[in-house]
Design goal:
The structure holds two protein chains of two kinds. By secondary structure, chain A is mainly β. Chain A has strands at 4-7, 10-13, 19-25, 31-38, 42-51, 54-57, 64-66, 76-78, 87-94, 105-106, 110-114. In chain A, 0% of the residues lie in helices and 50% in strands. The radius of gyration of chain A is 14 Å and the shape is globular. Chain B is an all-beta fold. The chains are: A mainly beta, B mainly beta. At the A-B interface, strand 4, strand 5, strand 9 and strand 10 of A face strand 5, strand 6, strand 10 and strand 11 of B.
Chain lengths: 115, 114
């Protein structure tokens, strides 16, 4: 099915381990984003990408790494997971459109627990 | 920098009544967009409605309307004829023109009572 999918949906990992969250979209949208959702904070931007091989930091990038070698994939890696990175992670994408803003389409989210 | 403020952490509304969820924003940009998203208990983020800063008329999408008051920098969501299925978390968000990332408020949890 067309859309944006995240994997895994749920993940438990130990402090200090590296973990990668996957995001795949089938629309060929140019822009992709990673957000984390925490109680009391809403959604906060971690990283985003305007195209393949173009990435930029968001509000809370520390401890995360991203790459975008292909337009359709935008993995998020926690290099050494900490308990403070326990959160729900959302991937989103938008198509490029000049003149007006475009809504972001979100994946189902990944609930990550760091123990 | 852009900022979204949602001052109502939680709200209750009777079924079939209308409800207004508040959203104020802060930006120095002249061109921007305002969005509302719904997040039901299942967790997905559902786009509801969009308002451009230069749009002269308030946006409407079915039972959703956006009360846009540019001078007051407010973009309140109005849900008419509330249904039990409207119970969810609602997020206001904004972005600069184009494809810049969305900045979100902290959300309002709406509970619809039968």
């Amino acid at each position: 099915d067309a859309g944006i999918t995240q994997s895994p949906r749920y993940k438990i990992t130990e402090t200090g381990r590296q973990v990668t969250l996957m995001c795949h979209q089938t629309w060929s949208h140019s822009y992709m984003f990673w957000y984390r959702q925490d109680l009391g904070h809403g959604l906060r931007l971690i990283y985003y990408s305007a195209a393949a091989d173009i990435t930029d930091k968001g509000e809370v990038p520390d401890g995360y790494v991203v790459s975008r070698s292909k337009t359709e994939n935008f993995p998020l890696t926690l290099e050494s997971a900490t308990r403070s990175q326990t959160s729900v992670y959302f991937c989103a994408s938008t198509r490029a459109r000049q003149g007006r803003n475009t809504e972001a389409f979100f994946g189902q989210g990944t609930r990550l627990t760091v123990v | 920098a852009q900022k979204i403020t949602q001052t109502q952490p939680g709200m209750f509304v009777q079924e079939k009544e209308a409800v207004t969820l508040d959203c104020t924003y802060d930006t120095s940009d002249q061109s921007y967009g305002l969005f509302w998203y719904k997040q039901p208990s299942s967790g997905e983020m559902i786009f509801l409605i969009y308002q451009g800063s230069y749009d002269e008329q308030n946006a409407t999408e079915g039972r959703y309307s956006l009360n846009f008051q540019k001078a007051r920098k407010s973009a309140n969501l109005v849900i008419s004829a509330s249904q039990l299925g409207d119970s969810a978390m609602y997020f206001c968000a904004m972005s600069r023109s184009g494809n810049t990332p969305l900045v979100f408020g902290k959300g309002t949890r709406l509970s619809v009572i039968a």
